[in-house]
Design brief:
The complex is a heterodimer of chains A (418) and B (121). Chain A is of the alpha/beta class and 418 residues long. Helix content of chain A is 22%, strand content 35%. In chain A, strands 3, 4, 7, 8, 9, 10 and 21 form a 7-stranded mixed beta sheet that branches. In chain A, helix 1 links the parallel strand 3 and strand 4. The longest helix of chain A has 16 residues. Chain B has a 5-stranded mixed beta sheet with strand order 8-5-6-10-9. In chain B, strands 1-2-3 form a 3-stranded antiparallel beta sheet, covered by helices on one side. Chain B is elongated and about 55 Å long. Classes of the chains: A alpha/beta (418), B alpha+beta (121). Chains A and B meet through helix 3 and helix 7 of A and strand 5 and strand 6 of B. The structure holds flavin-adenine dinucleotide and iron/sulfur cluster. The site of iron/sulfur cluster has 11 residues of chain B, from helix 1.
Chain lengths: 418, 121
């Protein structure tokens, strides 16, 4: 086939992995260890490690290795291991699409590539929510960045984003950027959070805000942004329990920069394109216990599956996905659903089609002390577990032995009693 | 003089607020920790708070303009500003190897500043 005067380059792979972040790297290593000889990792960046090279703070790998590494160090550990195994990396290669027969179309400087893969692992990561996801009214000046874009500017390209900064959203990326900006000489005027609690880890609230006397405005939001060319001010206001703005609490803060740390959305344009079923609650593909999506032979892991709290659990799960991708996929025609019931925001996996010991990850809806977790199938309680506490910022994990009987008939429901 | 201090424990994600009394070098736990691990943390945080420091240093002639760095050990909190000032003044020639010492005994802390990434020419 000839496209723009260039030949289509044809390749074959046992396992093709889309995305070379920590998820893609862990999946690649594990697929190789489990017998896949020809593993190809495709990434649009010129580097490997995904978002990690810009996460220069420490705290990565604690659960996995017992030492706290920085993002670049954690990435380096996986890149080295993957290189040793002779995995094929194709950097500066953008995947445009793949089809139901697992034929991938990708493009790089050499031209268009068609890669026929026995299995595919999706590891595209996530992207950040923007101003338009939450509809902040006002002007459209420059000086508004997502926290991750600001992080890349400052930590990779040595470009400072502004002098007087307000941060909207108290997720970890936003908290870490508050400290980073302070280190680089900016005035960080405050972090504004609509919820009554910070969404980032207490550790980051203490070490990124409290240490530098950066105020955290809980139950507050930005109601207006003003500025002709560059941002001139933001208006913040208090909200009530129903998140309605309380009139009369508005306050204008002069600033030239607003960072948005509003949360992450799994990146799944490629999945949507081939009609892989997505879960509205996670934003990622619906998977079974083998990390296989609704499209046979296509697996998902990392932040494009669900937004993980730590890279450690992300990598561990990605290894399981890689292992399964190296093996044959299970016939998908019969399965039971796993439903997120009362008090539960989401559960992964969402489907089960084989009995055995199954690892579940869930997020609760709101913070609570000593709740009880129940897993129920057709009126029978399969698991009852008392938790010391639960918080939406931290996933809850547990294992259950699922019998062949259960898989045959009954959906599972997970609920939280507080 | 006795000081009362509220310390947020960061050992686990619960983040207990631990109330302590400090009188010079004398430490007394008042309340708030849900487990024993919080005690050690509260003692060190009350008497000798330290932080791991990460930042970046300018690179000359490298494929990237910056190299990410960390302190080889946690830095006493009251030294953070002077350590950061030295990091800002520093620069290093490419190539840089991850693990390479970029600044020795930074700000007289007996702590080094170490590269966390390799940068090619
Ligand atoms: C801005 C930001 C900051 C973060 N900071 C932290 C932090 O401080 N601590 C922490 O634990 N976690 C942090 N995270 C979460 C972090 O994303 C995960 O820890 C981890 O990096 C996710 O790994 P991943 O492999 O799933 O995704 P990523 O690291 O994002 O990797 C995905 C890769 O897929 C590639 N890709 C996507 N689509 C295509 C395509 N069509 N073709 C080719 N390549 C493609 C991307 O270029 C990227 O390299 C942060 C996330 C973001 C977005
Ligand atoms: S005191 Fe114990 S339970 Fe409380 S935050 Fe510290 S480690 Fe966690």
């Amino acid at each position: 086939m000839v496209e723009h005067g260039r030949k289509m380059i044809n390749l074959n792979a046992d396992v093709a992995i889309i995305g070379g972040g920590p998820a893609g790297l862990a999946a690649a290593i594990s697929a190789h260890e489990n017998g896949a000889k020809n593993v190809i990792v495709l990434d649009r960046n010129s580097w490997l490690g995904g978002i990690l090279p810009q996460c220069i703070h420490d705290g990565f790998g604690v659960e996995e290795t017992g030492t706290s590494m920085t993002g670049p160090e954690y990435a380096e550990m996986y890149i080295k291991a993957a290189r040793k195994k002779g995995i094929n990396f194709m950097n500066e290669t953008m995947v445009l699409q793949f089809d139901k027969n697992r034929k991938i179309i990708a493009v790089n400087k050499k031209g268009l590539h068609e890669i026929k893969a026995k299995s595919i692992v999706l590891a595209m990561g996530c992207r950040e929510k923007t101003r338009w996801n939450i509809m902040i009214p006002g002007d459209r000046p420059s000086g508004i960045y997502t926290a991750g874009v600001a992080q890349a500017f400052i930590n990779l390209y040595n470009i400072m984003v502004g002098k007087n900064v307000v941060i909207l959203g108290s997720g970890d990326v936003g908290l870490i950027m508050a400290r980073r900006l302070k280190f680089e000489g900016a005035n960080v005027l405050g972090v504004v959070e609509i919820l009554p609690y910070a969404s980032g880890l207490p550790r980051n609230v203490v070490q990124c805000l409290d240490d530098y006397d950066i105020p955290l405005y809980l139950n507050h939001t930005v109601t207006y942004v003003k500025g002709k060319e560059r941002l001139e001010s933001v208006t913040i206001a208090q909200v009530d329990e129903k998140m309605n703005i309380i009139p009369g609490t508005e306050r204008e803060i002069k600033c030239d920069t607003l960072l948005l740390s509003l949360g992450l959305i799994p990146e799944n344009e490629l999945s949507k394109n081939v009609k892989i079923e997505l879960d509205d609650l996670t934003g990622g593909p619906i998977i079974n216990q083998s990390f296989e999506t609704s499209l046979s032979g296509v697996f998902a892991c990392g932040n494009c599956l669900q937004v993980y709290d730590t890279v450690d659990t992300l990598s561990m799960d990605a290894k399981v996905a890689g292992e399964n991708a190296a093996k044959k996929s299970v016939k998908q025609n019969k399965f039971i659903n796993v439903k997120a019931g009362k008090g539960i925001r989401y559960v992964v996996p969402q489907r089960i089609n084989e009995p055995g010991k199954i690892h579940f990850t869930l997020r609760v809806e709101k913070p609570c002390e000593s709740p009880t977790l129940h897993v129920i199938s057709d009126g029978i309680e399969l698991l009852k577990k008392k938790l010391p506490w639960a918080n939406p910022a931290n996933t809850v994990e547990f294992d259950i032995d699922i019998s062949a009987e259960v898989v045959k008939y009954k959906d599972l429901e997970v609920i939280l009693d507080d | 003089m006795t000081d009362e201090k509220k310390i947020t424990c960061i050992v686990c994600p619960i983040g207990c607020k631990i109330l302590v009394k400090i009188d010079g070098k004398h430490f007394e736990l008042v309340d708030g920790n849900k487990c024993k691990r919080g005690i050690d943390y509260a003692i060190s945080e009350a008497l000798d708070p330290r932080r791991m420091l990460t930042s970046s240093v300018l690179v000359k002639n490298g494929e990237w303009p910056l190299v990410s760095v960390k302190s080889s050990k946690p830095v006493p909190k009251n030294k953070i500003v002077s350590v950061l000032n030295e990091i800002k003044k520093a620069s290093v020639n490419a190539p840089v190897k991850s693990g390479q010492v970029v600044l020795n005994n930074v700000a007289d802390t007996k702590i080094d500043i170490v590269a966390t990434k390799s940068i090619k020419k």
